[in-house]
Amino acid sequence: MFQIALIQGLNRDVTGKIGTLQDLIDGYPSSIYVDDAWYELGNTYMTAGNQGKALEAYTELVNGNKKSDYLVSALLQLGLISENKGSNKTAEEYYLRALKSNPAPEEKDIAFDALLTIYTNENEMDKYVKLKEQYSGGTGSGSPEEGYYTIAETQFNNGKFDKAIEGFNRYLREKPKGANASNAYFLRGESYFELKKYAESLKDYEVVLTKDDARNYAKAAEKAARICAEYETDFEKALEYAQKWEESSKTEKSRLSAQKVALMAAYEAKKASAVADYARKINASAVSTESEQAEANYYGGKMAYEKGEYNRALPQFKSVTEADVTIDLLAESYHLICQILYKQKKYQEVTEMVEEANQASSNSNDWIARNLILLADTYVALEEKAEAVAALESVIQFYEGDNPEIKRLAQEKLDKIQGKSGRPANKTDNKNKNRLELDEGN
Question: Least CB-packed of 75, 86, 289, 335 within 10 Å?
Answer without folding.
Answer: 86
